[in-house]
């Protein structure tokens, strides 16, 4: 009787601790207040990105006077345009925001861009060019973009590593998808985002199983973010993550226990 009770307790323990619940695997699983309200909340959270220290900017200046434009480009081709679009080219020819919040454009000199939006930087550059170098009829065109949004993903994901997405805005789901998504033993309820600030790094948390994740200030990642996915307890226990795997583990353990009992009785 004691043996049967011990086996029952053992089986119950494995069933309760080994399987990963469907709740733990489902993104945004709980119900919100309706799709329309949710969409409004997401739209409200889509604030323009403001430039930070160490950001890499790509600045393109176009005009009918391309020879004059060449003065403001780090590396110019014969027609006065900057054609480097590879990651390596952007690294050398882009404009890195210094620790004081400045970028330095050839001929124009230093400009403070810290906490400005990309649109505000475009307008400031265009204004300065029109005041000092170009005439209104020069058809001046200025585009400022982030030279790729770089971030790191590590922990329980398909492929850990450093990634660069050439988009103005990247949400955490897109970032995780680029790394092969969270594994079945990854903790979606407490994903860590380590973010850079002028005063240092801070760790933030987001629950991706809740629909409230859309309202989180960390739903959209920022350049140089590090995303860490912690393992679930099932991984540390070394048990199966599905019911079939758990049953296999239980059968293996029971077979081992039975073998030990049989051998001990024959001694």
TrEMBL record:
<keyword id="KW-0472">Membrane</keyword>
<feature type="domain" description="Polysaccharide export protein N-terminal">
    <location>
        <begin position="46"/>
        <end position="136"/>
    </location>
</feature>
<dbReference type="InterPro" id="IPR003715">
    <property type="entry name" value="Poly_export_N"/>
</dbReference>
<dbReference type="InterPro" id="IPR049712">
    <property type="entry name" value="Poly_export"/>
</dbReference>
<feature type="transmembrane region" description="Helical">
    <location>
        <begin position="243"/>
        <end position="263"/>
    </location>
</feature>
<keyword id="KW-1133">Transmembrane helix</keyword>
<keyword id="KW-0812">Transmembrane</keyword>
<dbReference type="Pfam" id="PF02563">
    <property type="entry name" value="Poly_export"/>
</dbReference>
<keyword id="KW-0732">Signal</keyword>
<protein>
    <submittedName>
        <fullName>Polysaccharide biosynthesis/export family protein</fullName>
    </submittedName>
</protein>
<feature type="signal peptide">
    <location>
        <begin position="1"/>
        <end position="23"/>
    </location>
</feature>
């Amino acid at each position: 009787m004691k043996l049967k009770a011990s086996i029952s307790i053992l089986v119950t323990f494995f069933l309760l601790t080994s399987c990963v619940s469907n709740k733990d695997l489902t993104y945004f699983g709980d119900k919100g207040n309706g799709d329309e309200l949710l969409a409004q909340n997401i739209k409200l959270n889509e604030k323009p990105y403001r430039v930070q220290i160490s950001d890499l900017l790509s600045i393109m200046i176009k005009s009918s006077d391309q020879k004059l434009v060449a003065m403001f480009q780090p590396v110019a081709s014969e027609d006065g345009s900057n054609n480097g679009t590879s990651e390596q080219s952007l690294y050398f020819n882009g404009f890195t925001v210094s620790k004081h919040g400045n970028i330095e454009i050839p001929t124009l000199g230093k400009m403070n861009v810290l906490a400005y939006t990309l649109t505000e930087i475009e307008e400031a550059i265009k204004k300065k060019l029109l005041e000092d170098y170009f005439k209104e009829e020069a058809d001046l065109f200025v585009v400022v973009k982030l030279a790729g949004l770089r971030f790191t993903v590590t922990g329980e994901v398909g492929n850990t590593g450093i990634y660069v997405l050439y988009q103005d805005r990247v949400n955490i789901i897109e970032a995780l998808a680029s790394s092969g998504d969270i594994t079945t033993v990854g903790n979606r309820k407490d994903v860590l985002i380590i973010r850079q600030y002028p005063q240092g790094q801070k760790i933030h948390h987001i629950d991706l199983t809740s629909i409230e994740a859309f309202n989180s200030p960390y739903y959209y990642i920022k350049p140089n973010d590090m995303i860490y996915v912690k393992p679930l307890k099932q991984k540390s226990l070394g048990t199966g993550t599905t019911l079939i795997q758990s049953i296999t583990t239980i059968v293996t353990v029971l077979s081992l226990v039975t073998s030990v009992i049989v051998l001990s009785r024959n001694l």
